[in-house]
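sry for the spam today, last one i promise. struct tokens for design, 402 residues
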């Protein structure tokens, strides 16, 4: 059950990411054509107001189909209509006129030529395969030449649409962390939630539900209690608690030294912090996470750095373990995964969102489009890097799980 909850959580993070792209593209007038969780073939799909919503069979991500992501080129027409032309040579003339219009970058002529191709297709008898490919070509090219095509939009619109996906994950992480700090992530209370097994606290007789009020006879606050334990250097302490309405003194009990300093082995529940303070602490956590992620990327060239890479299998395993530790712990993990997903998607690599942002900025600065061939070559390099990291993470996860 915990694995199922972990998978649902990861699916929701993907949904939030794609929803960011989807709703922002709608807001700026770039109307999406498809909104999927998972990749085709579709398990379920419906169409509403010209938009196809679906759940794909391959649960490894999701996508939003925005019309005309790239300026159409002659190869697009060649790829979609060549099977039809080979079966019906009469289509060659209209398709050639379409390719010449796309070569010149003449949108109006391209739309007119596409109308001619569509009219000519209706007069030909084609095999089901060629007809399906040609129909897909008509849809894609009409979208790419239409007024709401992504490549025709101003630079700022393209930037906000692409950045909206990672931003949605980062905002979600911030909201979850703020919520946790306002509920259980603030300063610890003076009441013991539990006592660790075989710890000095358990051996001395401290119990869950005890409220610590003094150490060595001195009244302490929740913060001072932690400071007295950590600063004891292992010196035995007398702990005074309120138990069932009566004051009870326990000890002396000597804190034991651990990797995190001196500890008694008590667990205290956090007290919610005010909203402003919780927001500040959420920002602090995201800042620390950013530094650690950047440091980890810099260490990928070393064997130790590569050991820290995880695949979706490892992420699911960690999430599943967190589920078993309780809702709050699980939400901490979900928040950090969401933040990591958003930040890593901003890496300047195609096909990641950060790569599209980089190329949009380059095109905006140059005042002209980057050739499709450059996009494709850079995408191959970026995809190879992403797949390599996935393979490294998968290998690490297999080692850990085995």
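last one done:
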């Amino acid at each position: 059950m915990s694995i199922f909850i972990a998978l649902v959580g990861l699916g929701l993070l993907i949904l939030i990411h794609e929803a960011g792209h989807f709703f922002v593209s709608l807001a700026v007038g770039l109307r999406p054509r498809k909104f999927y969780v998972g990749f085709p073939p579709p398990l379920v799909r419906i169409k509403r107001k010209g938009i196809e919503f679906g759940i794909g069979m391959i649960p490894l991500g999701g996508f939003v189909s925005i019309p005309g992501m790239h300026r159409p080129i002659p190869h697009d027409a060649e790829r979609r209509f060549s099977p039809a032309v080979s079966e019906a040579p009469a289509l060659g003339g209209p398709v050639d006129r379409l390719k010449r219009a796309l070569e010149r970058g003449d949108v109006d002529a391209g739309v007119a030529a596409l109308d001619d191709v569509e009219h000519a297709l209706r007069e030909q008898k084609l095999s089901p395969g060629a007809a399906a490919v040609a129909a897909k070509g008509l849809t894609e090219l009409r979208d790419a030449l239409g007024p709401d095509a992504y490549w025709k939009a101003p630079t700022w619109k393209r930037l906000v649409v692409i950045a909206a996906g990672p931003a949605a994950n980062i905002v979600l992480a911030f909201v979850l962390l703020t919520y946790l700090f306002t509920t259980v992530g603030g300063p610890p209370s003076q009441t013991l939630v539990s006592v660790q097994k075989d710890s000095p606290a358990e051996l001395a007789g401290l119990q869950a539900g005890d409220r610590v009020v003094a150490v060595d006879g001195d009244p302490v606050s929740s913060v001072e209690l932690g400071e007295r334990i950590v600063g004891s250097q292992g010196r035995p302490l007398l702990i005074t608690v309120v138990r069932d309405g009566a004051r009870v003194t326990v000890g002396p009990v000597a804190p034991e030294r651990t990797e995190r300093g001196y500890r008694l082995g008590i667990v205290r529940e956090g007290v919610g912090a005010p909203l402003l303070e919780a927001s500040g602490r959420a920002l602090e956590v995201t800042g620390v996470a950013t530094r650690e992620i950047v440091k980890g990327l810099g260490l990928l060239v070393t064997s130790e750095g590569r050991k820290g890479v995880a695949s979706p299998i490892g992420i699911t395993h960690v999430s599943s373990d967190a589920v078993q530790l309780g809702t709050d712990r699980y939400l901490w993990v979900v928040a950090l995964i969401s933040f990591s997903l958003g930040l890593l998607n901003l890496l300047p690599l195609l096909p990641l969102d950060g790569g599209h942002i980089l190329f949009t900025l380059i095109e905006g600065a140059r005042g002209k489009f980057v050739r499709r061939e450059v996009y494709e070559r850079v995408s191959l390099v970026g995809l190879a890097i992403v797949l390599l990291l996935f393979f490294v993470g998968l290998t690490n996860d297999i080692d850990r799980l085995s």
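Residues 188-270 form a domain with the Pdz3 Domain fold (CATH 2.30.42.10). ok im logging off now
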